[in-house]
Amino acid sequence: MNHLTRYYIHQAGGGGGGSGDGIGRIYSVPPFVQRGHGLGSLLGGLFRSIRPLFLSGLRTAGKALGREALRKGGKILTDSG
């Protein structure tokens, strides 16, 4: 067997004696590794459901502020005339 092949098989985890019987387990996830996005996946759905309500509230507040600004601006213009 080629020395590079033996080296690869050894590095891959299957080469105790270099016989090339097969490549053992290459990758396994330890049980403590987090899968998914953690807290972000939990809060992401909550944020997506609240977002339309929040944006509609901002639009309503923006309209009210705009009306108030126009009213105050009109009063200022009539007072200084």
Question: What's the structural blueprint in terms of helices and strands?
Answer:
Blueprint: H1 3-12, H2 39-80
Fold and architecture overview:
The chain has a domain at 52-81. The protein has 81 residues and is mainly α. The chain starts with a helix and ends with a helix. It is built from 2 helices and no strands.
How would you sum up the global shape? rod-shaped
- State the distance separating the first and last CA atoms: 100 Å
Percent helix range: 55-70%
Overall average pLDDT: 75
- Rg over CA atoms, rounded to whole Å, is 33 Å
Strand residues, percent? under 5%
- Biggest β-sheet, characterized? none
Name the poorly predicted regions.
Answer: none
Count of strand segments = 0
| Secondary-structure element pattern, one letter each | HH
- Helix and strand composition category: mainly alpha
Number of helices: 2
List key phrases describing it.
single chain, 81 residues, mainly alpha, 2 helices
